[in-house]
């Protein structure tokens, strides 16, 4: 784990945005994408988003996400093909340009969450049919489902909110062909099962996650990110049963910590974003880094530096810039 001093010193050197002259640029909530010649250069910034709003930057967050995804892409390529070509920098991934599908596959192993799109938010308000999944009475927050459920979501344009939706509605609206959707469903459950078993060996629970897919040369491919602390919830496995039995919150290693801090301030997506203090940013960074180290079994290596300048040098080295 990096020291508090390193984390604090990096607060003024985080990567907020990029503006390279590479092909065509698209800016997501967290990633800056540049497309050229059938390839996409994905630069993962240190921006953090919650409730579909970009909040601030977190030290080394982009590096954690990029390296975590690279780890999982390597581990899961036998389950489903992915778009990765190379990782020329800790924050950069070069991938094959794919045609993305307009739906995210959200897989949930537990009922939890604080956002308006979370399963627990709906369940607490009496909804028992959640995205086509009929949920039993008597569930408690953070309880494990008998088997994982899929609750797809539309992919909203930048600045708009995603919409939770059933698979049947996706097919009915013509968002996806049924054959393609069923392939995505099968791949998502296989990826979630693999991820669940792998992290369980490292004292982690993969609570829920989202997957994005696209098409390349007529085949289904996994794109964007996989099993990161942004796209997934992780809890500490060893303390879950004890805390759950007492009705207490599990130990979390993901951005749920930031979501809950905001929710406690009365912010769940609407209105002005509360000022997030440095101590919250540093604690969030620690959780991201701990998640990376527990998932991969590797020590996270980083130093205080100008991330943007390092990325520029990396891109020049591989002749992208």
Task: Give the structure's gist in a few sentences.
With 321 residues, the chain is α+β, with helices and mostly antiparallel strands.
Write the layout of secondary structure elements.
Blueprint: H1 4-10, E1 24-27, E2 31-36, E3 39-44, E4 47-50, E5 53-57, H2 61-76, E6 84-89, E7 92-96, E8 99-111, H3 119-124, E9 129-130, E10 133-134, E11 143-150, E12 153-154, H4 167-173, H5 178-200, E13 204-216, E14 219-223, E15 232-236, H6 237-245, H7 256-264, H8 278-296, H9 307-317
Antiparallel strand pairs: 1-2, 2-3, 3-7, 4-5, 6-7, 8-11, 8-12, 8-13, 9-10, 13-14, 13-15
Could you characterize what this model shows?
- 33% of the residues lie in helices and 27% in strands.
- It is α+β, with helices and mostly antiparallel strands and 321 residues long.
- It has one domain: D-amino Acid Aminotransferase, Chain A, domain 1.
- Strands 8, 11, 12, 13, 14 and 15 form a six-stranded antiparallel beta sheet that branches. It has a five-stranded antiparallel beta sheet with strand order 1-2-3-7-6. Strands 4-5 form a two-stranded antiparallel ribbon.
- A hairpin with a 2-residue loop joins strand 2 (31-36) and strand 3 (39-44).
- The longest helix is centred in the middle third of the chain and has 23 residues, at 178-200.
- It is globular, with a radius of gyration of 19 Å.
- The two termini are 33 Å apart.
């Amino acid at each position: 784990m990096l020291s508090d001093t390193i984390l604090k010193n990096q607060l003024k050197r985080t990567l907020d945005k990029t503006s390279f002259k590479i092909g065509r640029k698209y800016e997501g909530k967290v990633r800056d994408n540049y497309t050229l010649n059938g390839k996409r250069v994905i630069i993962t910034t240190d921006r953090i988003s919650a409730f579909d709003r970009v909040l601030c930057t977190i030290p080394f967050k982009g590096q954690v996400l990029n390296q975590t995804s690279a780890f999982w892409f390597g581990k899961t390529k036998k389950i489903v093909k992915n778009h990765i070509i190379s990782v020329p920098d800790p924050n950069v991934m070069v991938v094959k340009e794919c045609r993305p599908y307009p739906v995210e596959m959200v897989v949930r192993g537990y009922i939890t969450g604080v956002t308006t799109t979370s399963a627990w938010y709906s369940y607490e308000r009496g909804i028992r049919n959640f995205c086509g999944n009929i949920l039993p009475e008597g569930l408690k927050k953070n309880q494990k489902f008998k088997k994982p459920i899929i609750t797809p979501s539309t992919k909203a344009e930048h600045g708009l909110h995603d919409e939770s939706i059933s698979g049947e509605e996706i097919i009915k609206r013509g968002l996806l062909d049924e054959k393609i959707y069923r392939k995505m469903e099968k791949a998502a459950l296989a990826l979630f099962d693999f991820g669940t078993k792998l992290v369980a060996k490292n004292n982690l629970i993969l609570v829920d996650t989202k997957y994005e897919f696209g098409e390349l040369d007529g085949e289904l491919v996994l794109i964007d990110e996989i099993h990161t602390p942004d796209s997934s919830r992780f809890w500490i496995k060893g303390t879950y049963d004890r805390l759950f039995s007492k009705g207490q919150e599990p130990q979390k290693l993901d951005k749920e910590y930031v979501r809950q801090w905001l929710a406690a301030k009365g912010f769940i997506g609407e209105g002005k974003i509360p000022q997030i203090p440095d101590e919250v940013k540093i604690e969030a960074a620690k959780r991201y880094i701990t998640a990376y180290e527990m998932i991969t079994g590797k020590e996270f290596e980083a130093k205080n530096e100008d991330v943007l300048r390092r990325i520029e040098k990396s891109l020049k080295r591989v002749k992208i810039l």
